[in-house]
Amino acid sequence: MNTAVLFDMDGVLVDSEPIINAAAIRALAEFGVEARPEDFEPFVGAGEDRYVGGVAELHGKAYVLEMKRRTYDWYLKLLPGMGKAFPGAKNLVELLHQHGIACAVASSADRVKVEANLRSVLGVPPEGFAALVTGEDVVRRKPHPDISLEAARRLGLSAEACCVVEDAINGVQAAKTAGMRCVAVATSFSAESLAAAGADLVRPAIAEITVDDLLAGPPTAPSPNAQSAGS
Questions:
Q1: Tens digit of each residue's pLDDT, the chain (231 residues)
Q2: Would you list the DSSP string of 102-150?
Q3: What distance in Å separates the CA atoms of residue 122 and residue 165, rounded to the nearest whole number?
Q4: DSSP code string of 45-89
């Protein structure tokens, strides 16, 4: 039985994908990049360096860190008007706490974005989680397993004792490569694509995830499409 749950943030706890998409489009326009919303899809869940940088390179522009900084500037401006938590997200975290299940946030995003979302949108401060791992805490972000493995390490648990809740193909691949059970929500990608990436279970929304979904059984084998930890 799993004894800890690692939540991705964007697209799982907080409906922030439309905000970061709008912010990145505005930021990249300042650098002469006319990005379209769909350009970002391959980079969802991989952290803002790839999310912004991948699209910049797609349009023939070299990525510079100022692009990400401006994206975050826009994100924090848009957050008060656009930010919202997914229905049931806070309730699920609170329910797990009541059952004595450790909860962590394991996100490829940078800490400034994670903390703003947790405090201002979800209504659970960072210290309300047993561990918080961001993309800045590891060398490799999703789809590599490093973020999930670091969260397990900080909780003092094996990978097999953890279940990951994800919304993105990159995140599912990271969880499965780490050897963890993965419950996915079809908020950013189709249920079929998440299952093909290796998710053990797919629910339409986080409000439909039960405690039993998260604690059930050992993880399945990693997806053959997942990248190995050494890749």
A1: 668 999 999 999 999 889 999 999 999 999 999 999 999 999 987 888 899 999 999 999 999 999 999 999 999 999 999 999 999 999 999 999 999 999 999 999 999 999 999 999 999 999 999 999 999 999 999 999 999 999 999 999 999 999 999 999 999 999 999 999 999 999 999 999 999 999 999 999 999 999 999 988 666 655 443 333 333
A2: EEEEE-SS-HHHHHHHIIIII---GGGSSEEE-GGGSSS-TTSSHHHHH
A3: 16
A4: TS-HHHHHHHHHHHTT----HHHHHHHHHHHHHHHHHH--BPTTH
Cα–Cα distance, 157 to 90 (Å, whole number): 23
Radius of gyration (Cα) for the chain, nearest Å? 17
Tokens encoding 61: 């522009």
What global pTM score does this model have? 0.84
- For residue 214, give both structure tokens: 């998260």
> Active-site residue among 10, 39, 146, 200?
10
> What is the number of other CB atoms lying within 10 angstroms of the CB of residue 231?
9
Q: Residue 207 carries which side chain, given as an amino acid letter?
A: A
For this structure, is 212 an active site residue? no
Set 8, 146, 167, 200: catalytic member: 8
Active site residue 10: yes
